[in-house]
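User: Predict the complex.
Assistant: Input components as received:
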Amino acid sequence: MATIEPALPPVTERSNILRWARKNLFGSWYDSLLTILGAWFMYWALSSLARWVITTAEWEVVAVNMRLFMIGQYPLEQAWRLWLWLGFLVFLVGNSLAIWGKGSRYSVALLLFPAVLAFAFPFGDEPRKWLLILAVTGLIGWGIGRARPEVLKRSVIAGWVISLPVIILLTRGLSASETGFAPFVKTNLWGGLLLTFLLTVVGIMFSFPIGVLLALGRRSVLPIVRWFSVAYIELVRGVPLISILFMAQLMLPLFLPEGWTVDRVVRAMVGITLFSAAYLAENVRGGLQAIPKGQFEAAEALGLSGAQTMIFIILPQALRLVIPILVGQFIALFKDTSLVAIVGLFDLVGIAQTVLAQPEFLGLQREVYAFISLIFWVLSYGMSYLSQQLEVRLGVGIR
Amino acid sequence: MADEPIIKVQDVHKWYGNFHALKGVSMDVQKREVIVIFGPSGSGKSTFIRTLNRLEEHQRGKIVVDGIEMSHDVRNIEQIRSETGMVFQQFNLFPHLTVMQNIVLAPIQVRKWTKQKAEEIAMQLLERVGIPEQAKKFPGQLSGGQQQRVAIARSLAMQPKIMLFDEPTSALDPEMIKEVLDVMTELAKSGMTILAVTHEMGFARAVADRMIFFDKGEIVEQGTPEQIFNSPKEDRTKLFLSQILRH
């Protein structure tokens, strides 16, 4: 009696790595050639890089100057204020991930990131301790958010709204006397990643509303508003950012009355904001133009005013459409802040230059620039990842 | 009739550049009247109905809606619009809002109703158009017929005195036309003042008090459905009717 063989699965499901490789990598003689050449090139590039990272490179320069890279000349005994607002931010991130995020496993991994940093990079004992506290704070925030998502929603949103003022206030200080609680720290001491971060966040937060207003202004029926918007946008877009930063640093003092000074960091912030707003306006205008005429007509036919139509119907749809472009612009802005190094501020790149100017670190450009490139890359990729999550969340391209 | 007409239109003209789209249209609409406007493509019928809530601006003549004269005054226009509902060929629902949010937005923002009151009335309207179970969905998740019924409910939520329909069934698949016409028929029988641009002659015959034939930017002929269908006077009307009724 013949036993009945179990039916074999279709051929495609039986394929294993070898089959896959034969089909995709060694399908023909030139496939094989390209595969071998490619593998050899990847091996050569990666192994040289690894050899350099592990044996040749002198990472001392990063370890010794870690504090400069992170916060510049910001006084160490006041650094707790920065850790405090970082803790506040991480707590909010934990809350938000628990309330709005979907993949809980990734959330935990993300919140453990500070702890990973603490061990992966040559921080001192004090920052390591703080980084571990940050990770714990984030997890606590996540736990609380999970326990009470509905109750917390409003306070988390409020927390995000006040986060920028909190960051600025804590960084700048609260009392004028040097012996008082959290004395002022002059902005010429702000530096490194701290300065880069602040320039970026302020640039984004302020250029966004200005850009939206300019975009609306450019489409306005009022000629003066329209002309002003067009003139502003075209003027700013026709000039490189570096020249705007120079003007803000060198020419602005000439126009201000005697005795008036505007802080140099503030000047850079204003320059970056005004520059970014012009580009943002054009991106938002692109979104506005993509909204069909029928949406305006339906809103108006219901009796909504022009402003109500914009706020409730047009802008929400237009902004959702341009999220990928806006995030691209914000990433560009983040990297463009490094131009302030040229006008004499000590952001990440500025600090890199001063570090490299010290005699004992001469010739270590590769190590220093590799390190700050890594920081830029991690943060840029983080922004890009968050924007993808936001798109999924808001259903871009679905509704 | 003794009543003052709810819409008065006198000698309305409109040009698009050199194209004379409306050539002196005059008509009165009484309260509770149901009017069907029909005519060939490009005859100006849609343009005309859109001048009644100022989606198109007329350049000569006079339009008075519910005692308010249409002028450049934005407040007048917004008041007329809030008394006049409009349903479009392409539905024009707001895709980023749920069905419920689509309906309650204008009552809350323009009429200043509370959210609770607006939602109660929205639910009643959704029941009236037969899709209360769709309240939490987004427009993109509904069929064309359902979307158009939501659009009707959205207009009705403002409690308008007049409803304008601009080819409401032209973008629908055949099997969905009936569900929209049923809602419109029910609305007509409830005493709403209705102006509808449509070629649904069955609907016209069943509920219209008056039919108006538009061609080349002017009113060619008007009368009761009986007069229009059985004894049209003008050759153009006869020709057009023979074309659309043949199949």
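Chain A touches chain B at residues 292, 294-295, 297-305, 308, 312-313, 316-317, 320, 398-399 (CB under 8 Å).
Let me know if you want any component modeled separately.
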